[in-house]
Amino acid sequence: MRSAVDIATAVGSGSTTAVSVLEQHFAEIDARESDIHAFNLVMRDRAFEMAAAVDATVAAGGDAGPMAGVPVALKDNLCTEGIDTTCSSRILEGWKPPYDATVVERLRDAGAVFVGKTNLDEFAMGSSTENSAFGPTKNPLDTMRVPGGSSGGSAAAVAAGFASVGFGSDTGGSIRQPAAYCGLVGVKPTYGAVSRYGLIAFASSLDQIGPFTHDVADAALSMEVIGGHDPKDSTSIDVDRLDISSCLGRGVEGMRVGLIKELHGVADADVTARVVASAEALEAAGAEVVEVSVPAALYGLTAYYLVAPAEASSNLARFDGVRYGNRVDGPDVTAMMRNTRTDGFGAEVQARIMLGTFALSAGYYDAFYGKAQKLRTLVRQEFDTAYESVDLMLSATAPSVAFEFGAKADPMAMYRCDICTIPSSLAGDAAMSVPFGTGEAGMPVGVQLLAPAMGEATMFQAAAVLEAEGGEVRV
Predict the structure, then answer these.
(1) 78: domain CATH number?
(2) Kind of pairing between the strands at 444-451 and 288-292
(3) What is d(CA 305, CA 372) in angstroms, rounded to the nearest whole number?
(4) pLDDT tens across 65-82, in order?
(5) Residue 101 domain-assigned?
(6) What is the pTM of this model?
(7) Residue 160's domain spans which residues?
(8) Residues 1, 216: contact at Cβ < 8 Å?
(9) Overall domain count for the chain
(10) DSSP letters of 238-262?
(11) Active-site residue, from 150, 236, 400, 425
(12) pLDDT tens digits for range 128-155
């Protein structure tokens, strides 16, 4: 039993127990985690305490919540009170936050059971989970290949059966791309639809938290649990809750879906073939598929790799060896900070901090960061224009299937893995990846559905149709 909906129904009705469900998942962890390395921390004792509490609530006749007994994996950049939260960086190794992220609170209140904190590219900067200070995570479908990134640990945990649902953060594709590589559903919500409070920031104007699941219904349930307004997050949209599950059976009859012209030719032939097949499936279900043009989408990669590093440069300045985290001593404060940051940050994080600092520096701000923000505005405007004529848009999630370790050693080759996912991040719109068949070496292909802001319900309607036609990827 791996469906979160099925688990919650069974546990809530008393036909099974949260403890027995957890035991099944820990059997999978014990069997494969040493090979996969999905987790930075496995929370065995805490998980069984949470599961026992759920069972006690059910036994007493209470409502254990919509995710009663569902084993959940949390990306290790989500704050968990009293539990190590490292961002897979040596600079935060051993740090225990004094509070829970809002998403963590909502999941706990919904009856979810936390099995562990998952590995990621350090501070969410990467597309393969090869940049973690604690070693790479492997793709459970083929351990010679990456699981994607930066949320590769959460994706791998769900794909391997270690958890029923995983949660990650998506700044430029860090949920959608690993979902595609691991054969999962992965959702980037509308910016502001899910609270960022307690998410350790990479790029604050882009970061969003979302789920990895085996199916669309589980993703809908997860979004309903974590979504909604949070006064602790000043960017939170003032909406009480998301209503998505009720829309899943409505189909796509009469819907207009735009196939993004500029992103259609950037993927490998095997991936492109599956995107074409997904468009045909939507047409067969009653949707009208038309070609749409979003010219600025091709320049999204350039804008992103100025905007995101600039925000990272500012956000990561707080990790200085003074207030919290690791400290490497020196003869004076300046040397101490330099030593701490040099030792604590990995090469990719250092490179992005330097790039962002340069882009923000006097004499270069207008030439680089300012122009990138103008291009971001253009992306936003062109997406808005496109949505005047279509309900949703469609593209590949990633330009290839999961690649082998070391295959993208060139930074530019790695950055291009996000070419399809970055535009909707810049726009702040909703997007999700849905498995749709396989490509090279039998690895899964993900197709991406894109929706206007707060268009999650319509997006999920189409996702349910694609899921019915796309087949299932099994470990």
Answers:
(1) 3.90.1300.10
(2) unpaired
(3) 9
(4) 999 999 999 999 999 999
(5) yes
(6) 0.97
(7) 4-245
(8) no
(9) 1
(10) --S----GGGTTS--TT-EEEEEHH
(11) 150
(12) 999 999 999 999 999 999 999 999 999 9
